[in-house]
Amino acid sequence: MGEGTMQNEINLRRTKEIAPQGLLIDGNWRPAKSGATLDVLSPLDGTRLTTIADAGREDVDLACASARTAFEAGKWSRAAPAQRKKVLLKLAELIERDALDLAVLGVRDNGTEIAMALKAEPMSAATTFRYYAELIDKVYGEIAPTQGDVLALVHRQAIGVVAAIVPWNFPLMIGAWKIAPALAAGNSVVLKPAETASLTLLRLAELALEAGVPPGVFNVVTGKGPITGEALALSMDVDVMAFTGSGGVGRKLLEYSARSNLKRTYLELGGKSPNVVFADAPDLDKAAKVAAYGIFRNSGQVCIAGSRLLVEASIAEEFAAKVARIAEGMKLGDPLDLATEAGAINSEAQLQRSLGFAERATAQGAELLTGGARIFDDTGGWFMAPTVLSKVRADMEVARHEVFGPVLAVIPFSDEAEAVRLANDTEFGLASAVWTSNLSRAHRMVQALRAGVVHVNTYGGSDMTVPLGGVKQSGNGHDKSPHALDKFFDLKTAWIQL
Questions:
Q1: Rounded distance, CA 102 to CA 7, Å?
Q2: Looking at residue 200, which CATH number applies to its domain?
Q3: Which residue of 129, 150, 214, 227 has the lowest C-beta tally within 10 Å?
Q4: Which domain holds residue 157?
Q5: DSSP label at 17?
Q6: In angstroms, how far apart are the furthest CA atoms of the chain?
Q7: For each of the chain's 498 residues, which pLDDT tens digit applies?
Q8: Do 158 and 300 fall within a single domain?
Q9: Is 64 a catalytic residue?
Q10: Are residues 134 and 44 both part of a single domain?
Q11: What is the b/e burial string over 398-423, where b = at least 16 CB atoms within 10 angstroms of the residue's CB?
Q12: Beta-ladder partners of 21
């Protein structure tokens, strides 16, 4: 499909009416028991798209009980891995079939630019489901090296009920990272999408039923985090909690685990990722462009966004100016235009938060090179200009806290030792990058940087073959790769006296 034809297809879908959305429990769509709903507002223009059900504790309990019953019944949990594989491959095909519909629906719901959304949302989700479908019938148990009169077997078994709480920035992609391996392993799932980005995941649930996932194996409850999310985290029917979101919510989930059944709780809590540029980078022009796009795509609403740009002092001023010029040249505007390179902020609250960070940074002495203001406010949508702040000190708020918006803090360093110290001077440890032509330095930096991912002479772009996880307060556990399955299996030992 050519770009012109693709744009026409997108335009046909941009105003499509969206029916009110319910909860999926035990294979049936139903309203919340209370009848309560939440309005879905579009970041593109602030208009009301539809409503979603606002689930209460009773709804969550029903969904968790449904998942438990389905797991114990065994139609999915005890099915041959090859059978689960067949269903998940069908789901991947259905996601690809409806990719454009899903992408446009997601952009209307959360504001990501459509060119990124197509790849990062439905196509990524389809890849994830296909990856774990193909992997699951290749997972073996073990025979332990015991003495001759003992046979010791290590079985991998599905744990039970998995609760997944996913954020609003890439709901399909991140949702698939949790749902696909959990289902592939034989578990039942109760999913809670973010209240400001639920629509594509509700559509995914419809496709799961169409693909043949049995009733009760995949349930979806929408609603407010402090009510719906808390009820899910406190449920005695949930065995594993998988979460991506803020550190504050992550701490609450750990507390709820302790208050309930000590469910295993895996947290991906974002970051303040350092992008370290040495003067001997192989291509400073490329480094500047990648640095700009590494923070400003999806308006900075990316967990691994390179929000701290650490630059060797000898080139810091010139490099920061180069990044600012690239930011000013980015195509901003309508997220449903294929040419747009940075879309909308997810909500009015998130927009005001990002603007506040930029305003306080300049008050604390940072130099505003570009941006720092709301744009396109006449549309009624939530947009912010890409913002580059130079002369940022490591102790400034904007250098220490996750903004989750289009705000870049540029910090100079004098030598490799200081670069390492500044890069690691954060409570987070999700992603990082280093740009250098010195092979020895690159390896030293990979070892020294305290982060789950270290990019070298690039930023982002890793695929399903490698794990994504954080250290320090960026969380625990891993998404992607075969290692993600570890969260959703129990190991059971059979010790057999011969």
A1: 15
A2: 3.40.605.10
A3: 150
A4: 3-269
A5: -
A6: 79
A7: 888 899 999 999 999 999 999 999 999 999 999 999 999 999 999 999 999 999 999 999 999 999 999 999 999 999 999 999 999 999 999 999 999 999 999 999 999 999 999 999 999 999 999 999 999 999 999 999 999 999 999 999 999 999 999 999 999 999 999 999 999 999 999 999 999 999 999 999 999 999 999 999 999 999 999 999 999 999 999 999 999 999 999 999 999 999 999 999 999 998 999 999 999 999 999 999 999 999 999 999 999 999 999 999 999 999 999 999 999 999 999 999 999 999 999 999 999 999 999 999 999 999 999 999 999 999 999 999 999 999 999 999 999 999 999 999 999 999 999 999 999 999 999 999 999 999 999 999 999 999 999 999 999 988 999 999 999 999 999 999 999 999 999 999 999 999
A8: no
A9: no
A10: yes
A11: bbeebbbbbbbbbbbbeebebbbebb
A12: 52
Q: Which amino acid is at 456?
A: V
Q: Letter for the amino acid at 441?
A: R
Q: What CATH number is given to the structural domain containing 407?
A: 3.40.309.10
Q: Are 264 and 289 members of one domain? A: no
Question: Do 287 and 230 reside in the same domain of the chain?
Answer: no
Quick one: tokens of 382?
Answer: 């939530």
Q: Which of 121, 195, 303, 402 is catalytic?
A: 303
Give the 3-state secondary structure of residue 165.
Answer: strand
The answer to whether residue 488 is domain-embedded is no
Residue identified by tokens 């990124």 is 116
Set 113, 121, 195, 268: catalytic member:
268
**23 token code pair:** 């909860």
Sort residue 107 into left (φ over 0), alpha (ψ -120 to 50) or beta.
Answer: alpha
**Runs of H (alpha helix) within 19-152:** 57-73, 81-97, 99-110, 114-118, 124-136
Is there a single domain that holds both residue 310 and residue 183? no
pTM of the model: 0.97
Neighbouring C-beta atoms of residue 490, cutoff 10 Å: 14
Are 379 and 338 in a shared domain?
A: yes
Given 243, 269, 295, the domain boundary residue is 269
DSSP assigned state of 485: G
Answer yes or no: are the C-beta atoms of 458 and 432 closer than 8 Å: no
206 and 334 co-located in one domain = no
Is-contact 309 409, C-beta < 8 A? yes
Q: Tell which of 239, 269, 299 closes a domain.
A: 269
Token pair of 450, please? 């305290």
Question: Rg of the chain's alpha carbons, rounded to an integer?
Answer: 23
User: Rounded to an integer, what distance in angstroms lies between the CA atom of residue 243 and that of residue 385?
Assistant: 30
- Tell me if residue 58 is catalytic: no
